[in-house]
Design a protein that fits this description.
With 400 residues, the chain is mainly α. It is 80% helix and 0% strand. It has 2 domains: 187 residues, MFS general substrate transporter like domains (Growth Hormone, Chain: A, Up-down Bundle), CATH 1.20.1250; 191 residues, MFS general substrate transporter like domains (Growth Hormone, Chain: A). The two termini are 30 Å apart.
């Protein structure tokens, strides 16, 4: 890999900041506020957790049209506009004394995050990098876990010492800080807007040379189902603490969650490097096999140590559901169709994750055990493995 110039590093830095806001602060840290807000407003935690559901659904829905507006108005204008929505809504939540205004404000900041969040950042990096796109995507995606790991104890201390309202004000300030690189650095959705070529591309391609492949309905279905099933699987870590309690190993629950979150970040970077080295199909297939084995280990074991190690390996599911889905869609359909297909797939996978969290809970309620849910997830992983390799087999046949 040739040396990457600083002009290509800027979009990655900007992407890290935007992901740190949209996922790190607004999603991964959001759970810290559920209990204190519920206690303060005298409502159930389920009612408060609905704020995150609204945020995620709005972010995924707006992500479908994000590229259109980013190209029309420019990256910087949209980042400034979206930052005002994100930080402003977060700040105003601190003044709410009922849950309904919180629902509205989370919808507003979800709108802002959808414009410059997960789908937009992934598209930007894929437009900027013809080579090493998987690794660069993984670096940006991994920042959500790093931001949450650093901020969680700080925000938790602020809530304990000064209350959830003041902590929300601090989160608004952090959003401004994280989004600042995308505002100040020379970045755009596509490198050609700054007179540059994608990294790894020696000359500007003609219309006949652009990477756009013919996409059949079956190929689109296989790729979408692959992403949806793996996004569904990532709902399990939110139940890790409850799973440990169901095995009478409550003290291991926190360690399982921590191990899973460490793998969330490190796994994305490892998978990004691996897919660039050996190809998307092989790299993603290996990770799916590892996550399937970890799922069966969780099902079979009652040892705290083995469960913690299994949870760490299970954390690789985050990399499969994010980095691999982005890379696979780019490789199957080309960069020309990527910008049209990926936002739609991202929205569907967001819904799948939200539904997965609830369904796993309902399975436990009906069976008084997480074992049926684990077997169900193992089955989904096997199906996703078949769909991934079936998609590549179908593409190979179409090309031949």
């Amino acid at each position: 890999m040739k040396k990457i110039g600083k002009e290509y590093i800027y979009p990655v830095i900007a992407g890290c900041g935007l992901i740190g806001t949209c996922l790190g602060i607004c999603v991964n840290v959001a759970g810290l506020f559920f209990t204190p807000i519920a206690a303060d407003l005298s409502i159930g935690r389920g009612s408060v957790s609905m704020t995150l559901t609204i945020y995620n659904l709005m972010q995924g829905l707006i992500g479908i049209i994000a590229a259109r507006y980013l190209e029309r108005y420019g990256m910087k204008k949209m980042v400034i506009f979206s930052t005002v929505l994100q930080a402003g809504a977060t700040f105003l939540i601190s003044f709410c004394h009922s849950i309904v205004p919180m629902y509205l404000l989370n919808g507003i900041r979800g709108f802002g995050s959808g414009m410059i969040g997960f789908a937009a950042v992934t598209m930007m990096i894929n437009f900027w990098f013809n080579e090493s796109s998987a690794l660069m995507t993984s670096l940006a995606m991994g920042f959500s876990g790093i931001a949450a790991a650093v901020l969680s104890p700080i925000i938790s201390s602020l809530i304990d010492g000064y209350g959830w309202r003041f902590a929300h004000m601090v989160c608004a300030a952090v959003i401004l800080l994280f989004n600042l690189p995308a505002i100040l650095l020379p970045v755009s959705l596509r490198p050609k807007e700054l007179g540059l070529l994608p990294y790894g591309e020696e000359k500007e391609k003609t219309a006949s040379e652009t990477h756009e492949y013919n996409a059949s309905f079956l190929l689109i279905f296989l790729a979408t189902a692959y992403g949806t099933l793996n996004s569904f699987v990532t709902a399990m870590p939110s139940h890790m603490s409850g799973f440990a309690q169901s095995r009478d190993l409550a003290q291991a629950g926190a360690m399982m969650v921590s191990a899973c979150m460490i793998a969330n970040t490190s796994g994305k970077i490892i998978l990004g490097w691996l897919m660039d080295a050996v190809g998307c199909q092989k790299g993603a297939s290996l990770f799916i096999i590892l996550v399937t084995l970890a799922t069966m280990s969780l099902y079979l074991s009652d040892s705290a140590l083995i469960l913690i190690l299994s949870a760490a390996v299970f954390g690789l599911s985050y990399a499969v559901a994010t980095v691999s889905v982005s890379a696979v869609i780019r490789e199957l359909f080309g960069i020309g169709l990527y910008g049209k297909l990926y936002p739609k797939v991202s929205f569907i996978t967001t819904i799948a994750n939200a539904l997965g969290t609830s369904l796993i809970g309902y399975i436990y309620d009906s069976a008084s055990s997480y074992d049926p849910a684990l077997l169900f997830l193992a089955g989904l992983l096997v199906i996703s493995f078949v769909m991934l390799n079936g998609a590549y087999l179908l593409k190979g046949k179409r090309n031949s």
